[in-house]
Amino acid sequence: MTNTLDAYCVMGNPVAHSRSPWIHARFAELTGQPLSYDRALVPLDGFADFVRDFAARGGKGCNVTVPFKLQAAELATSASERVRLAGAANTLVFSADGIHADNTDGLGIVADITRNAGVPITGRDVLLLGAGGAAAGSLGSLIEQQPHRIVVTNRTQAKAVALIEQHAAIAALHKVELVTLERQVLETDLAQNFDIVINATASSLAGADVPAPSSVLHARSLAYDMMYGPAAQNFLNWASSHGALARDGLGMLVEQAAESFALWRGVRPPSTQVLAELRALLLTEAAH
Ligand code: ATR
């Protein structure tokens, strides 16, 4: 009998910045689950080999981050409906049956908005800024909450159209109005304001302005950036300065990790506590 720990990791490139090892180490401690969770810098042209090798060496599962989420979905032998909708996976589970892919990003943002921020999505009007991987990973889970309407807007309109077409069936199933509006319409039609505005664009990283007019906000809107730290600051400042409740994506990060952990271990970790601890840690680091 061996006493090696069940092994997990986060695979990405770059990956040095990832907080996932810290989060999963806390989950493991707090739930009494003996496991190891490392960072794996995977060569850009070597993802599939790396996954198979990790599984062959006894790895039980992994998280997948930029730029491998699409490849993870393709490589899996089975996948959840969420992966099929998003075309991307952030979680792999290895078993004797093969490699199962899931995507917990959408569950993560929904848990953070509804549970941690206490803002219901059901029946509300939602604006999703962006139509790239981050937006695609969350849209299905947002629809499942049965908001009244989700508007997707993106710099490249054709990508927003493709994204809503991909989700048309699930939106119809949940009776959600899913449409795209061009930026120009948002600028000119001041009746277009939203209860929840989610930034899934990389515009802050690019140093660009928030890709929406402030008229999309009303006094009780929740403005949510999927990023955290300096990358979210521009959007959060914009939202606060227009009177909205501003929230970064740190809770989404912890909640998607909690969903992955539950898939692997069958145990739900205390994500609210770990989120509070991580926020405190980041504040301490920022002060030094
Ligand atoms: P991610 O995986 O982070 O979503 P992505 O798939 O490259 O990355 O998507 C980036 C998103 O940010 C896209 O919606 C992109 O708009 P385009 O589809 O038009 O490229 C958006 N984005 C990036 N830079 C932007 C900017 N300066 N202004 C507005 N939107 C921007």
Q: Helix- and strand-based class?
A: alpha/beta
Largest sheet: 6 strands, mixed
Task: Identify every distinct bound molecule in the structure, by name, code or SMILES.
Answer: 2'-monophosphoadenosine-5'-diphosphate
The DSSP helix count reads 12
Counting DSSP E segments of at least 2 residues, the number of strands comes to: 12
Strand residue percentage:
15-25%
> What integer is the average pLDDT?
96
CATH class of the largest domain equals Alpha Beta
**Overall number of domains:** 2
Give the overall silhouette. Answer: globular
Helix content: 40-55%
Tell me the CATH topology of the largest domain. Answer: Rossmann fold
So, CATH architecture of the largest domain?
3-Layer(aba) Sandwich
Q: Output the radius of gyration.
A: 19 Å
Uncertain segments are none
The arrangement of helices and strands along the chain is EHEHEHEHEEHEHEHHEHEEHEHH
Query: Cα distance, first to last residue?
Result: 46 Å
Strand order of the largest sheet: 2-1-3-5-6-4
CATH homologous superfamily classification of the largest domain = Leucine Dehydrogenase, chain A, domain 1
Q: Describe it for me?
A:
The protein is an alpha/beta fold. The chain has two domains: 6-102 and 251-287, Rossmann fold, CATH 3.40.50; 119-247, 3-Layer(aba) Sandwich (Rossmann fold), CATH 3.40.50.720. The chain is built from twelve helices and twelve strands. It has helices at 20-31, 47-56, 69-75, 81-86, 105-116, 133-144, 157-166, 168-173, 183-188, 230-241, 250-265, 271-287, and strands spanning 6-12, 35-41, 59-64, 78-79, 91-95, 98-102, 125-129, 149-153, 177-180, 194-199, 217-225, 245-247. The strands form two sheets. Strands 2-1-3-5-6-4 form a six-stranded mixed beta sheet, with helices on both faces. Strands 9-8-7-10-11-12 form a six-stranded parallel beta sheet, sandwiched between helices. The longest helix has 17 residues, at 271-287. The chain is globular. The mean pLDDT is 96. The structure holds 2'-monophosphoadenosine-5'-diphosphate. 2'-monophosphoadenosine-5'-diphosphate binds at residues 130-134, 154-156, 159, 200-203, 206, 208, 211.
